[in-house]
Design a protein that fits this description.
174 residues, elongated, 60% helix, mainly alpha, two-stranded antiparallel sheet
Length: 174
């Protein structure tokens, strides 16, 4: 049944790989979340008369692992790869972590810092704002993580404004 399920899942467009763990009677499916959903995978299995006992879309351990990989890319100044990996970690966190988990803010903050390195200040500003919302709801506005993120947010707001093209509203009046 596991081999049949593996063949079935590999045939689903968007699936990038299926790793079989016969010892634990489980399979790990790597897939492009934009091309296929977990629901699509379950339907494919059901069509073959197979049943999935559980579907783990994401977990904190997976998100943390991806975060660590992204940090290596950042250390090597490979911001494009870091951005891809952090985006995947955020997607895992959105599906697998509760909204009140402060690690979500860590991922958002790390992606924001990558966007700052890429000089994409408006994107970074939005990510820092999301992180602040999570931190305020989970840890409070006086927590050191909140204060550090707020400082980063204020810095990027300043950088974002400095890069703006002046308009009638932003040109100082004599």
């Amino acid at each position: 049944a596991l081999l049949r399920a593996q063949r079935t899942l590999n045939a689903v467009p968007g699936v990038q790989g299926v790793a079989l763990d016969a010892w634990n009677q489980t399979q790990r499916v790597t897939f492009d979340g934009k091309a296929v959903t977990t629901r699509d995978l379950l339907i494919a299995l059901q069509k073959e008369g197979l049943e999935a006992r559980s579907v783990l879309v994401g977990s904190e351990a997976v998100a943390k692992d991806l975060n660590e990989k992204a940090l290596v890319f950042v250390q090597n100044s490979n911001y494009q790869e870091a951005e891809k990996v952090l985006s995947a970690a955020i997607e895992v966190a959105e599906h697998g972590l509760e909204k009140g988990n402060p690690f979500r803010a860590t991922l958002l903050t790390n992606l924001a810092s990558v966007r700052v390195k890429q000089e994409r200040f408006a994107d970074a500003q939005a990510l820092y704002r999301q992180a602040l919302d999570v931190l305020q709801a989970t840890l409070g506005a006086k927590h050191p993580n909140y204060l550090t993120t707020e400082e980063s947010y204020r810095s990027v707001v300043t950088k974002n404004r400095a890069g703006e093209v002046p308009t009638v509203e932003t040109v100082p009046q004599p």
